[in-house]
TrEMBL record:
SUPFAM superfamilies: (Trans)glycosidases. Residues 15-24 have a biased composition (Acidic residues). GO terms for molecular function: maltose alpha-D-glucosyltransferase activity. Residues 1-59 are annotated as: Disordered. The lineage of its organism: Bacteria, Bacillati, Actinomycetota, Actinomycetes, Micrococcales. This is Maltose alpha-D-glucosyltransferase. Its EC number is 5.4.99.16. NCBIfam families: TreS_stutzeri. It comes from the Bacteria.
Amino acid sequence: MDEPVGARETSADTTENESVEPEATEITYDEQLYPARPRRLRPRANLRSGSIRRNAADPRAANGLNPAYVQWLVRQSMLKDADVLSRQLSGSPSMWRNPYARPDARRAVSVSDVWFTAYPISLITRPDQSFLAALADPELWKVFQRIGITGVHTGPVKRAGGIRGWQETPSVDGHFDRIGTQIDPVFGDEQTFQRMTDVAEEHGGSLIDDIVPGHTGKGADFRLAEMAYKDYPGIYHMVEIPPDEWHLLPEVPEHRDSVNLDSATEAALAERGYIIGELQRVIFYAPGVKETNWSVTAPVVGVDGVTRRWVYLHYFKEGQPSVNWLDPTFSGMRLVIGDALHSLGDLGTSALRLDANGFLGVEKSAEGLPAWSEGHPLSHAANHVIAGMVRKVGGFTFQELNLTIEDIRDTGAVGADLSYDFINRPAYHHALATGDTEFLRLTLRTSLELGVEPVSLVHGLQNHDELTYELVHWATLHKDDLYPFRYQELTGGELAELIRSELVQALTEPAADFNLVFTTNGIACTTASLIAATQGHATLDSITEEDVPSIRDAHLLLAAFNAWQPGVFALSGWDLLGALTLPRTEVADLIADGDTRWVERGAHDLLGIAPETERSASGMPRARSLYGTLPEQLKRRDSFASRLRGLLRIRSRYGIATARQIDVPDVAHPGMLVLVHQLETLDDHGLPIVQLTVLNMTGDAVDGTVRSDALPLGATVVDASNEREVSVVDNLSSFPLRIGPYGARFLLLRRPEPDPAAG
């Protein structure tokens, strides 16, 4: 059998317990790979298990001594695929045809501005039909076209999870722990994905895929890195801990391959200079599960015969090792760019979501302070590289990161074309829960003041994640700044704590036992279940058919908030069907580790193709739907889908997606919200048309006054839904308006003709 790459030949009579002179040295594996580097001498006594013998590998062994196992991993490696893909494009004229340096939100929005956000494991399909085949169904795209949906974000569909030995292990985070560029067979294949892009194009739509630049799963790349194979350790933030320091490390149980470090071990390793220690926050913090952002591997035999233990960084779960964007090998960068090129080139997608891309730079901070891990310049640079490459091949990107508004602005200045709207998402939920838009007006205004325009945001209803209420902007960088709120001044930290507490009180038990707190991040709920809680329902069984119209009206109100402002509007199958959360007993095994989000990810059947099916192909239980299937809804004028269709027609007709938001004025009633926009369309006077989105976040009718200095004096106020005149702007730049329960009005201002006598 061939010798493992990097293995060293030793004397046949050398034993593990042989005494070694202290000055004896041995060349390490990386010196064999890179002989030009200065030799780093390591005492032979530090090498656990001593040396190995040539041809000693067990052909069944899943370790670095078995060349067959190593090559089996290499064939599945994302880094290997990336090297092949990049060579196919290098030197091609197609790489020079598109501008790429600057983000262009309006160009991105013009490609597709209403997105259906899919979640692969929750879509119910026909028997023996894959997820991708279901999304390639022309009947589904006809329905999407009727409603006004122009893009589908597929969600992650490539291989994910991990590898232990010769076996694959399941995903630990909904397929966001990617381990391959290949389509996961559970969702379909590459040919079906390509057919889906063709069907989408035939119906005026486009496809959006995912890349995950911040981490992978524990797949072939991570296992090769653990075995110190070639430049694979450079993919990750991983540090080899010498055996004489292993007493600092916790033991790894036999059924595990790593364990999380507690804060004391994190501090001890940081003090000795192995890791940078504590980061700015611990996402998914859970005592005894994830107390720090660092984990340690069990002993791993490398391709050179050396047994190592590694400490590695993971911003998210233990099975999601973080990618290192500034390693001398640039292995991580090559891996991520290769994955992006595969989606855009081979699969034919138009855009990519950059998942959790705000955590690409990490650096040791001053003594006693947490490491700099958010808003780092390297994150900005890495996003520039990714987004520039995508634009260079004709696509666009959007980023999903929950950071301060300044960080979102700075990351997007040269990076992704669009960002997910984590700024206003918890705020509009709070407005509905409390009947008060004050905090929502604060978030909208702060966003504008700090340079994040709504046209650059993806405004979403429910997706696969929780209702995020970390309120990072207020709770971190601005925690000591003062803000006027409810006739007093609160610090950002106090404000964040207050908003979180009010959301928990209004939306979870005892007020509602079907929405669950998710660690420190937010609340697991659907849009419909959130609304049900705000309307006084304590249990799922208390929601009857008589309650559906009120829930539907509030749901359409939230759709109007997101759709009747500049930027992308996104919604999911759970929104389209009015899905409720699953009873926790139906997903008890999935939420056992604290990930309560599974209650909101119930299976759903968009077209009604499998009415008797109780679970998706991936095993998710069917959620209760309040609105019915899309074909059924489109037969009824008062249904959610039909009324959403009318709402989106207005959005399209007046081009609100690419408008400019110019004011978020004070309101006469706390439940009202007024957004003032300038459309790109010019009126008869050659001036931009002024448009108003006016919403009532309460279940009662409101008589109020709309006032803004941006309103043209004497302008006629017209309701776009019926072209009827509503009022006239008076000399105080205001007009009265009545708006019904959960009402939404799209108003246009028509400037008066000039008075000839005044000239």
